[in-house]
Specification:
Helix content: 25-40%
CATH superfamily of the largest domain: Type I PLP-dependent aspartate aminotransferase-like (Major domain)
Shape: globular
Mean pLDDT: 97
Strand content: 15-25%
Structural class: alpha/beta
Largest sheet: 7 strands, mixed
Strand order of the largest sheet: 4-10-9-8-7-5-6
Bound molecules: pyridoxal-5'-phosphate
Oligomer: single chain
CATH class of the largest domain: Alpha Beta
Number of domains: 2
Order of helices and strands: HEEEHHHEHEHHEHEHEEEHHHEEHEEEH
Number of strands: 15
């Protein structure tokens, strides 16, 4: 008997994921199809990856054209696609320079390497980085050490040196944890894996002030919040302050592996030839996908539309919460990054919704997380909320 894809994967691939019982074979815009031809609406988009939707025609065309033209040469040489992508990122952000890589963790590694150089140059060799409880920064040894979640770190001790964790949103705790060895603060402008947690009013400005006063780098991990997810091109635009360094990945190339470290000149200049690098980063095919993503996101009106859709989505979820006060603890979000906190475990609801043809995610056991493509429309949201309403009718908050 021939094995199915799921049987082969369960046998041959290391079990780092608990997978849902579905094998997707095709996607288009908001929609996905499985092997049996069943259709789904995708409210996860990878995990905030396919921001323009699945198989976006312009992205796919650019990728095919470039793949037939030039796939790879080393970064020892100049290539055209990365030039344009870097230009768009710099012209549309606080950053002066960009370093491209292949993933979020790798982008954070690059930013953390810059903190070491910064500490040596400006702060007597200080190398301490303060990060947040509930954060997520990646799975490499250094980025899992930066991550403020025990479940990510457990078993991998000894952790990388130099990280101190404090409560997210607590300026006094940050001030208290600061010492002579502190050279940087790394945080997400909205906690993603941590449960879609927004910082209190004025917090980010306060962190900026502490970093500026003390000469430390402020690094925003915008791997999830960036590139239109929160209703602005970058989440830092919601407050009046910008970081010194920002990391990007997830949506950058609409599903092809791409990450970026975006930095002000004072930090960027610390990298010189030989201090950092990547074989695959900024490859022509990936950069062509990223070019289309960025050109689309920066079109007049694109972000405003997505921001408006996010407001509509949040309103609908708030109405739903009012209908189910015994089951829903809170709804929150920014732009199209939304969380619905349940009064019990979310996994059964995720399964129920999948059966009904909706892809959603649950993080921190109880928070249903919605990160749809930015092209999502009100009718898709209406359909999801109705399915969720029905699924909630048979769901009870069991205690964990
Ligand atoms: C996903 C994510 C990462 C890790 O990105 P990878 O590409 O999986 O390495 C880091 N930080 C945040 C905020 C993320 O959401």
């Amino acid at each position: 008997m021939t094995q199915t894809a799921s049987q082969k994967i369960d046998q041959y691939i290391m079990t780092t994921y608990g997978r849902q019982p579905v094998c997707f074979v095709r996607g288009q815009g908001m929609r996905l199809w499985d092997q049996a031809g069943k259709e789904y609406l995708d409210f996860l988009a990878g995990i905030a990856v396919t921001a323009l939707g699945h198989a976006d025609p312009a992205v796919s065309q650019a990728v095919c054209n470039q793949a037939l033209k030039l796939n790879h040469v080393s970064n020892l040489y100049y290539t055209e696609p990365q030039a344009r992508v870097a230009e768009i990122l710099v012209q549309n952000s606080f950053a002066d320079r960009v370093f491209f890589c292949n993933s979020g963790a790798e982008a954070n590694e690059g930013a953390l390497k810059l903190t070491r150089l910064w500490g040596k140059r400006h702060l007597n060799g200080a190398y301490g980085v303060i990060t947040m409880y509930g954060s997520f920064h990646g799975r490499t040894m250094k980025t899992l050490s930066a991550t403020g979640q025990e479940k990510v770190q457990k078993g991998f001790e000894p952790l990388a040196a130099g990280f101190t964790h404090v409560a997210y949103g607590d300026l006094a705790a940050l001030d208290q944890a600061w010492d002579d060895n502190t050279c940087a603060v790394l945080l997400e402008p909205v906690l993603g894996e941590g449960g879609v947690i927004l910082p209190p009013e004025g917090y980010l400005a306060g962190v900026r002030e502490l970093c500026t006063q003390r000469g430390a780098l402020l690094i925003y991990d915008e791997i999830q919040t960036g590139l239109g997810r929160t209703g602005k091109l970058f989440a830092y635009e919601h407050s009046e302050v910008a970081p010194d360094i920002m990391t990007l990945a997830k949506a950058l190339a609409n599903g092809l592996p791409a990450g970026a470290v975006c930095a002000k000149e004072e930090a960027a200049e610390l990298f010189i030839p030989g201090t950092h690098g990547t074989t695959f980063g900024a490859g022509p095919v990936t950069m062509e996908a990223a070019r289309v993503v960025l050109e689309t996101l920066t079109q007049p009106g694109f972000m405003e539309r997505a921001e408006g859709t996010g407001i509509y989505f949040l309103e609908k979820l708030k109405l739903l919460a009012r209908e189910h006060p015994d089951k829903i603890a809170q709804v929150r979000g920014l732009g199209l990054m939304l969380g619905l906190e349940l009064k019990g475990l979310g996994a059964p609801l995720v399964g129920q919704l999948l059966q009904r043809g909706f892809v959603v995610n649950c993080t921190q056991d109880k928070v249903l997380r919605f990160l749809p493509p930015l092209i999502v429309m009100q009718e898709h949201i209406d359909a999801l909320v109705e399915a969720l309403d029905q699924a909630l009718a048979t769901w009870t908050p069991e205690t964990a």
